[in-house]
Amino acid sequence: MLLRRFSFQSPSNYIPPSTLIRHRLLSSNQNDDVQKVFGILSSTSTPEQLKQSLKSSGVFLSNDVIDQVLKRVRFSHGNPSQTLEFFRYTGRRKGFYHSSFSLDTMLYILGRSRMFGQVWELLIEARRKDQTAITARTVMVVLGRIAKVCSVRQTVESFRKFRKLVQEFDTNCFNALLRTLCQEKSMADARNVYHSLKHRFRPNLQTFNILLSGWKTPEDADLFFKEMKEMGVTPDVVTYNSLMDVYCKGREIEKAYKMLDEMRDQDFSPDVITYTCIIGGLGLIGQPDKARNVLKEMKEYGCYPDAAAYNAAIRNFCIAKRLGDAHGLVEEMVTKGLSPNATTYNLFFRVFYWSNDLQSSWNMYQRMMVEGCLPNTQSCMFLIRLFRRHEKVEMALQFWGDMVEKGFGSYTLVSDVLFDLLCDMGKLEEAEKCFLEMVEKGQKPSHVSFRRIKVLMELANRHEALQSLMQKMAMFGRPLQVDQSTVNPAETSDSLFTKS
């Protein structure tokens, strides 16, 4: 039986071993190429050095390689000016077109560094080369960076600039603006912009779903739902779930249950998101046991809970300090074939952090590593702050070693706390080692951390080591600082627009 079981291969699914090996080799070679190009980008300081190094590297700069390099630059906070040189250099090749992912990632990198003039220049260059290059997603990427540091008026002015750049300046672009305002500004701002522009862009189902998902009060959500129906826009499951979420967060559980009945009357089947909202709402009104029962009730309707639904129920018990019941739900998840994720563990880490329980946090972390669930940034910050509070250098260094080896968490955020601990404890050699490990990963230490290490090295008369660290920091460059009180990102390229 065992031999028969493993000897059968479906013709449609069978992949020859030689093909699998070839795919693995190609993937490995591409990773090596990405690492090599990223290293060149991080270690060169002038456009000439960059071009020469890329030419002599022997790496074929395909779209996939460029996509991955830019992705690494984004998450490592690499030098934006040098990255722009790389982007333009690779884009000048005859017959080559950057992918939408590359363009949007490059724009994100520039926008994060507030290099708005270069953002508009790059957009115009992309439009001249390919009229379809700029999409609604591009609009959202650029506006997201502008809205983070500029006013609503400046964000809307920048949005209007896209009329000359996007091939179809339509409702999809309008929705991108509204989504940006919901995420980076207030719902009042999004509402005002919606009313001022809704006659220029006819709202569709996605427009209302974006706005409904951001409301904080049931009254505001009800008004928009009414307007949606008056305009003849038919709601879908996402619409109902958005309303359900507002009701539950507003602790209006009775309204949520009425909405559940309305969904069924309209022949919409509530999905796992619907029930997860109810579970969260019941927890907010102090009924974690009733919320746990929803996990069972939803199965009767043919809807099975996922990890997010279980996490919502676990959160309720953690808030109620009933960790035994919370652990019980984790075990139930496992028996149902669901794996606890970083969010699951963070629910416990939060309780342990506020109760100052280092040992329980450490045990939970070790369990995660055994089960192959890598911590996310939130998990890392709970842990490193506890190590800092208890002055546990060995634990902190072991944890940092795992981060470096497995590549999880935010190096920048964690290292700030780690260097504080090491410097306070006089562990200069360990701090230097961690600093170098971070740089080798292409991650830029913060200037605050560097200054702390610098002071200790000066006191210890380790001037050569300090000079080496200063050279390492110089590789990352310094982002261009823009005075937002005097510069409007929507106006930085007015002269460029008049040329096109």
Automatic annotation (TrEMBL):
Keywords carried by this UniProt record: Repeat
Gene3D superfamilies according to UniProt: Tetratricopeptide repeat domain
The PPR repeat ranges on this chain: 236-270, 271-305, 306-340, 341-375, 411-445
SUPFAM superfamilies assigned: TPR-like
GO molecular function, one term: mRNA binding
Family of this protein: Belongs to the PPR family. P subfamily.
Entries under NCBIfam families matching the protein: PPR
Protein name, per record: Pentacotripeptide-repeat region of PRORP domain-containing protein
Source lineage: Eukaryota, Viridiplantae, Streptophyta, Embryophyta, Tracheophyta
